[in-house]
Design a protein that fits this description.
There is one protein chain. By secondary structure, this protein is an alpha+beta fold. The protein has a single domain (3-81), classed as RNA polymerase, RBP11-like subunit (Gyrase A, domain 2). Helices cover 43% and strands 28% of the residues. It is built from 2 helices and 4 strands; from the N terminus they run ββαββα. A 4-stranded antiparallel β-sheet has the order 1-2-4-3, with helices on one face. A hairpin with a 2-residue loop joins strand 1 (3-9) and strand 2. 19% of the residues are buried. The mean pLDDT is 93.
């Protein structure tokens, strides 16, 4: 997945996603909002058919660190989901 860092200034980080789909940026923003040091996390897009999603993160501390923490948490959730699915498949065979 390709991204472009549009703004990286102090406590704000703006990341543009090349893919027009909002699913991944929305998932990241939702996870970021579970962190107390994140003041704002949201996704902007001009119009559903044009433009690219922009993930905006404002943090009390470090938006990059908060982003990495959110991505790690998402990864753990998917690893757990894959494990559950794998176990369920084995049980039915």
């Amino acid at each position: 997945m390709k991204i472009n860092i549009k703004k990286d200034e102090g406590k704000e980080l703006d990341i543009e996603f090349e893919a027009p789909d909002l699913t991944v940026p929305d998932m990241i923003a939702k996870e970021l909002l579970t962190n107390d040091s994140v003041e704002f996390a949201g996704v902007l897009k001009d119009h559903p058919e044009v433009g690219k999603p922009l993930l905006v993160i404002k943090s009390k501390k470090s938006p990059k660190s908060d982003l990495l923490k959110a991505l790690s948490s998402i990864d753990e959730n998917f690893t757990d989901l894959k494990s559950q699915i794998s176990k369920a498949k084995k049980g039915k065979q």
